[in-house]
Fold this sequence. Notes:
Layout: H1 4-19, H2 24-36, H3 42-50, H4 56-67, H5 71-81, H6 87-100, H7 111-114, H8 119-132, H9 138-146, H10 154-167, H11 172-180, H12 184-198, H13 204-219, H14 223-231, H15 237-250, H16 255-264, H17 273-282, H18 286-299, H19 304-310, H20 316-329, H21 332-339, H22 347-359, H23 366-375, H24 379-390, H25 393-409, H26 412-421, H27 428-437, H28 443-457
Helix pairs in contact: 1-3, 2-4, 3-4, 4-6, 5-6, 6-8, 8-10, 10-12, 11-12, 12-13, 14-15, 16-18, 17-18, 19-20, 20-21, 20-22, 21-22, 22-23, 22-24, 23-24, 23-25, 23-26, 24-26, 26-28, 27-28
Amino acid sequence: MMTQTEKKSGADAKLREALAADASSARLQAALSAGTHPDPAFIEVLVARCAIEPDFYVRDMLTWALIRHDRAEVTRRVLTELASNVPQARSQALHTLSKIADPDTWPAITAELLHDENDDVARTAWRAAAGLVPEGQEVPLAEILATQFGRGDRDVQLSLSRAFADIGPAAAPVVERAKAHGEDAARLHAIATERIMADPEEGFDAAIAEARKAVALLAAPRVDDLVRVRSSEPTDWRDVLRTIALMRGFDADDASERQRLALSLGTSEQRDIRSIVDAALTETDPNAAGALDWSIARIGHSALPLIIGALESPEDHLRHRAAEILSRMRTPEASHALAECIRHPDVVVRGHAALARGQRGEADAIPALFELVAAGHRDVEASDMLAALAAQPSNEDGILRLIGAAFSASGAAERLRLTATLADIPSPAADAVLAELTADHDHRVALTATSILRSRTR
């Protein structure tokens, strides 16, 4: 009489033999029978066959047969297949887990599986993850899936779009961001996905067709683009397209993208001077602005007329950026242009001009340098230049008179900065002013003046 073990061994051997039949119909019948009459011994055989079965319908029946068995045992065995070197084994294991739908298996669907180089594995992982994602994890999952936009053929892309639709509204902001960034193929896929999410009944081909129209409209030149292109005086249509692409790059929301674009520009970008200068004048991020200033400095004097013209702009921020760019160019031409603005009505521009003239040793910069010290704007540089100018005997008396006059009209912070400026003017006349300040009603000014005088007697 056969033992229970022998019966089990015989049953799984018969199933293994039946699943190896040449005819797919015979294999389909064997899988159907295994699911209709479950036996724990069948689990190992069914899982092993999933990894090598070539027929789609038979594979689907194998999955059905597995979920007819004890689900905890099937889950335990299937999870080990996720680490298999055989792509079909990983794919079928994911498919089975998605059918079992045990929430506890969510951690097993790793980022590595979602990025799997095999399209079939990745597609199945996307579907399984979208069905198992726990509440609160929708956005992180969507962020990972968004990196796959544009991947693969039509069927692969459709699988990803359906996964986003399964995740639901929580994924919408991620898709919205993907529409605005990345390569054209990814943006196209994201737009089609948004349509599928809004109307799951819409066919994917129709969604892609509408997405192509949307991308074409986004890429079309805008009226303001064309106005800016015209001002850059392009010579042919290729120049127009390149200029529009450059302007779009400088309009990117991400400051790091704008910075990278600026750093990628070469010294030969003379034809794009207006676009580069316009971007530099309106840039608000300090890192991107620095990269654009560097790019302009490399282009050289060709950019000067546009920057100098911006000094007369009715908009404050454009005037200030123009003065800043000129001061960073550090060329004789730029320094001269900036120095000529010493009587400019804008105090910020006038301050840049004062520093430029001060570097040249010109005494008419002194009043504007005092403005900088009093305002606390680049006051250290201004103080150093005042000290250098005071070293010229013809300037010392005038500087000290201005300091004396400024004390009577300045606030506490300004008076303290002016006192500190006297530290860099080592002369009897400056010492006399400091001696008076040791008795100043402002205790901080008096202490500073006393400290400066003591340092000189050591």
